[in-house]
Amino acid sequence: MLAERTALFKSSGTAAARAAAKAAAESGKEIIDLTAGEIWSDLAPTIRVGAIDAIRRGINRYTDTIGMIELREALAQKVSGHTGQVWHADEVAVTCGAKQALFNAAMVLLNPGDEVIIPAPYWTTFPAQVLIAGANPVHVETRANGYVPRVEDIAAAITDRTRAMVVNTPNNPTGAVYGTETLVGIGKLAIERDLWIIFDECYGDFIHVDDAHCPIVSILPEARSRTLIVNSFSKSLALTGWRIGYLAGPKEVISAVKALQSHTTSNPNLIAQHAALAHLLNSDGSYERHLRSHLAGARQTGLSALSTLTRIPVPKATGGFYFYLDVSGLLRLRFGNDEPMTADDIVHVLLTRAGVAAVSGTTFGDPAGLRLSYGVPPEKLAIGLTRLVEVLNAWE
Ligand code: PLP
C-alpha cells in the first residue's frame, strides 16, 4: 500500500510523451521527436575540461551540502552581473538541477493548505511540487493575453491563503517572455500582499526578440527580499543530464534549503560542480553564443514551415526553444461530435500519421495547446514540421 501522497502526482507528461515517441520508434516507425525539453548540441569544451581535470585530480569527497564555496562565489558573481546588484555566496545554493531548487523552495516556503499562484499553461512540475509540499496550486489563465498573465487576474486570484507566485519567464511551454510592466505589477502585488515570488528564469539566455528578459529583482529591487531566483545550466549550456542548477535568495531561505538538502541529496554531483566552476571561470561566452545562434537559426527554419499552417496562428516563440501552437481552430471543427476532442487527439494523429512526436497542452493545463521543441537537429526539425503542417492542414 502506497502513501496517500502518491495520488497527488504522476510521472511528468513530457516524459510520457517522450516514452510514446520512443515506443513508436521501437516498433519500427521513423519518428521525429519534438518532445524533448533539451537542446541537441555538443558539450561545452570548458565543461569537458573542467570535469576531466577534476577526475584526473582524483577528487571524490562530499562538498558543502549546497555546493563548493568557490562555485557559490562564482555564481553569486554571475547573479550580481545579471541583476546589477551585489549578491554573496551565502545567498546561493547549488542544487541537482533547477528541479531540486524549485522543490527545495516549495518545501521550505509552503505550509499545508497554502495557495500558490501559477499562470497557465504551466510546466507540470510547478503544481506537482506545490501539491507534494501540501499546498494548493491556483492557476491564472493567460491564453487570451498572448500567454502573459494580466496583473489584475493575478490580483483577483489572491486570497488570504496565498503564499507565493510562480513567475516563469521565458515560459515553458509557451515561449512567452513577460515584459517589464507585467513584472513590476507582479512584484508590487507580492509586496502589497506579502507573498513570495519564485522566479524561474531557466530559459533566460534564449530571447529572440528585442524586448529583453529582465530579472524581476533588477526592475523592482524592493522585491528582492521576497524573491527566489531559480536557474540552471541545463538549458543555457545544454547540460540537462549533468543535473546542476542553483537557487539565489535571502540568506535565511538558503540556510533552510541547506538543512533540507542535507537530508535529501546532500551536495550536487562533485564532478558537475567542478565542471560548472571551470566554465564560470574560463568561458569567453563563445559556447553560449554558438548555442544562441544555433537556436535562432532553428527558430527561423521552424517559423517559416509553420507559417504555412492554414488554421493555426503562427506562434510568437519569443523565448526559450519551444513553438507553442494554439490548435483550438482544429478542435472546433469537431464540435458536435460525441467525444470532445483535445490536443491529445492531435498528438496521437501526428504520431501515427506524420511520425512526429509532440507534447499535448493537456499536460500543461491547456486542452488546446501543442508544444514542439526546436532544440533538435535542424534537418530533423525541417522534415518534422513539413510533415506536421501537411497533416494539420488536411485536418477535417
Ligand atoms: N524550470 C523550467 C521552467 C523547466 O522547463 C525545467 C526543465 O524542463 C526546469 C526548471 C528544470 O531544469 P533542470 O533540468 O535544471 O532540473
In words, what does this structure look like?
The chain is an alpha/beta fold. It has two domains: 4-42 and 287-393, Aspartate Aminotransferase, domain 1 (Alpha-Beta Complex); 45-282, Type I PLP-dependent aspartate aminotransferase-like (Major domain) (Aspartate Aminotransferase, domain 2, 3-Layer(aba) Sandwich). Helices cover 42% and strands 14% of the residues. It has 15 helices and twelve strands. A seven-stranded mixed beta sheet has the order 2-8-7-6-5-3-4, sandwiched between helices. It has a three-stranded antiparallel beta sheet with strand order 9-12-11. Helix 7 (180-192) links the parallel strand 5 (162-168) and strand 6 (196-200). Helix 14 crosses helix 15 (378-393). The protein is globular. The protein starts with 12 loop residues before the first helix and ends with a helix.
Q: Any chance you could write out the topology, listing elements then pairs?
A:
Layout (H helix, E strand, L loop, with lengths): L12 H14 L5 E2 L11 H12 L12 H15 L8 E4 L1 H13 L5 E6 L4 H8 L3 E6 L9 H7 L4 E7 L11 H13 L3 E5 L15 H4 L7 E6 H4 L8 E4 L2 H11 L8 H13 L3 H21 L15 E5 L1 H5 L10 H12 L1 E2 L1 E2 L8 E5 L4 H16 L3
Parallel strand pairs: 1-10, 3-4, 3-5, 5-6, 6-7
Antiparallel strand pairs: 2-8, 7-8, 9-12, 11-12
